[in-house]
Amino acid sequence: MIKVSNLTKQFAGHTAVDNVSFEVKRGEIIGFLGPNGAGKTTTMRMLTGFLHPTRGAVEIAGCDVFEDPMEARRHIGYMPESCPLYTEMRVDEYLKFRAQIKGVARKAIRGRRDIVKEQCGLTEVGRRIIGQLSKGYRQRVGLADSLLHDPDLLILDEPTAGLDPNQIREVRELIRQLAERHTLLLSTHILPEVEMTCRRILIINKGKIVASDSPESLQKRLEGDVLISAEIAGDPGVIEATLKSLDAVDVVSHEPLNNEWNRYRVDSSDPDIRTQVFECAVSKGWKLRELHLESRSLEDIFVTIIREDKAAGAKS
Amino acid sequence: MRTFFALWRRELSAMFLSPIAYVMLMFFLLVTGCGYYWLVKENLEVMRSVQGLMVVIWASMLIVVPVLTMRTFAEERKNGTFETMMTAPVTDGTVVTAKFAGVLTFFILMCLPTLLYLVITSKLAPAAAHLIEPESIANGYLMVCLIASAFIALGMLASALTSNQIIAAISTFSVMSIFFFGGLFEPHLSKNPIVREVGGYLSSALHLMESSRGVFDSRSLVLYLSTTIFFLFATIKAVEARR
Q1: Number of compact structural domains in chain B
Q2: How far does the CA of residue B131 sit from the closest CA of chain A (Å)?
Q3: CB atoms < 10 A from the CB of A43, how many?
Q4: Disulfide check for B129: which of A59, B72, B122, B214 has CB 3.0–4.6 Å away?
Q5: Are B87 and A73 in contact (CB < 8 Å)?
Q6: What integer pLDDT is reported at residue B63 of this predicted model?
Q7: CATH architecture of A2-214
Q8: What is the rounded radius of gyration, in angstroms, for the C-alpha atoms of chain B?
Q9: Hey, are the CB atoms on B91 and A106 less than 8 Å from each other?
């Protein structure tokens, strides 16, 4: 569906996207992650043909985006970051206008408009002026717009940015429904969102793809490196020092709970570190009330991968 | 063609959906109305009524055109709607020409009520009503539209080069001023024959005075059409280059 080869974009003085190549198959749902300024938006803008690359090529559904832009754009539904709309228009007017310029057949316009309004929960607000709608509704109008011509590929740049938790949940639900029928590429900062919706993750840092895999395999990459959490009562200084002296323990940190209790987080390369901690607590006579293995969240994976990349960059 | 009309309609309706259209109409009718009254009252010996009207429309263009064109691209760029527009399957050329057509249509709509001035003059002031002839009216308005086209295209180029509307308006105003005042005063003030000659060719005021006398000069037709095409072409290139 998407084939990106050696894509590079240089702006005056710096390289925003550096020799990026990846492929996306039909029906995939891809989460596009990266810190601010990593080149996510620039990459997405090049995929849609809005920006021209310094080097490299993008193919969407077999059409070269820069050689045959009109045909390629017919396959793409794109919602830019911050979801720009003509705020002085009514929702119905706007969607009609967008359908017209997207080349939806004259007779089909009304039908398509009603379908996307239904899909995005806009049926009630068709007559409202976009400028008077809340951010969540505007986001839906943007999504409805990107769906109007029933594209094969949806590219959504931070579709949930700036929404309240309730609206985020609604938009996420909507995205999940869309994922059943479209190939989807979405960028976001909210990692649980990706965990819940995406089957593959692309992580970009400083213009380069640093990871491309399913969340599960990325998790595996970090295995052998476990994180446990233990709640122990007693002098935190002593306990932390003792835990640190255990075999295979890399990092220990603690946060105070109520009274004498503290929660210790132990980072270790030994998958069986829990027994050691327990035995240690028994032999020293500490009170231990909780001990569990923490599963790595996508957030940890993300932070680790970006950190690894930074370290590699510093070495070279 | 369908996308062209959709974009054209959107451009035109955007103006009527914002206060700009109404403020602009009020300003334009006020300035041309007062200017026309004064010119016709004081200068009937040297100027026909139609000529007077064309000259006041021409003068108000200096303000009207920069204000109408400043938003065309700069506003879209600032709001980000430029991105949604340019990722839809429309060519740069269609967007530029549709926007141009939208602004020009608005300008023509704005000029229509000024026809009433001539009607009022011919009804109420027989002394000033002589020589209000269909040919000179048609010629005069045609020339006004041609001059407006060239300057609208110029204004759009300025708007495509920046995302700041004020900068777009002031640059348009500045370049227009050179044409306006250069063409208006220089031919009469300068002793240098070349300046007088060139100034005379470029003077839109002179072109208007001629055409609203009923004399149609194809040289000015060529001048304004080619200028319009040149600036539209430059605008398309500017839109492409800013990617």
Answers
A1: 1
A2: 46
A3: 29
A4: B122
A5: yes
A6: 92
A7: 3-Layer(aba) Sandwich (3.40)
A8: 19
A9: no
* Residue A94 contacts B where some CB pair is shorter than 8 Å: no
Name chain A contacts of B84, Cβ cutoff 8 Å: 78, 80, 84-85, 98, 145
Please name the member of A82, A87, A101 whose beta carbon is closest to the beta carbon of B88: A101
A84·B17 Cβ contact <8 A: no
Give the tokens for residue A242. Answer: 């003792």
DSSP letter string, A10-67: EETTEEEEEEEEEEE-TT-EEEEE--TTSSHHHHHHHHTTSS--SEEEEEETTEETTT
The nearest CA of chain B is from the CA of A298 a distance in Å of: 31
CB contact under 8 A, A78 and B6: no
Does B225 lie at the interface with A, CB-CB under 8 angstroms? no
pLDDT on residue A303: 78
- Tell me which H or E stretch contains B236: helix B218-241
Q: Which CATH architecture has domain A223-295?
A: 2-Layer Sandwich (3.30)
- pLDDT tens for chain B, residues 1 to 243: 889 999 999 999 999 988 888 999 999 999 999 998 888 877 766 667 888 888 899 889 999 999 999 999 999 999 999 999 999 999 999 999 999 999 999 999 999 999 998 888 888 877 766 677 888 888 889 989 999 999 999 999 999 999 899 999 999 999 998 877 766 665 566 677 777 777 777 777 777 777 777 778 888 889 899 999 999 999 999 998 877
Domains in chain A: boundaries: 2-214, 223-295
Token pair belonging to B53? 């009207």
